[in-house]
Amino acid sequence: MTKEIGFIGLGNMGQPMVMNLLKAGFKVKVYNRTPNKAEDVVAAGAQQVNRPKDLVIPGGIIITMVANDQALEEVVMGPDGFGENWERVAFIYQ
């Protein structure tokens, strides 16, 4: 099992979840449509990426915690979405 997780969505639920993953010893890469929302988790040890597709690693896990279906479609199937590499990750989504 990988100890690296990609996480999309750093709102009221996402940010505390990332903090708990970091405390549990996971390496976490994060993406948020509003980049400055990543400041606290980056200060705690997360790595911020500029595009959702930058979260994908072979055998990795991506967790999405986004506001709605449109936001989910954007981060998966949008121009910089991770969907083109879907076979390389396990999906955990809300």
From TrEMBL:
Entries under SUPFAM superfamilies matching the protein: NAD(P)-binding Rossmann-fold domains
Pfam families: NAD_binding_2 (PF03446)
Superkingdom, taxonomy of origin: Bacteria
Domain 6-phosphogluconate dehydrogenase NADP-binding: 4-87
InterPro entries in the cross-refs: 3-OH-isobutyrate_DH-rel_CS, 6PGDH_NADP-bd, HIBADH-related_NP60_sf, NAD(P)-bd_dom_sf
The name this protein goes by in its record: NAD(P)-binding domain-containing protein
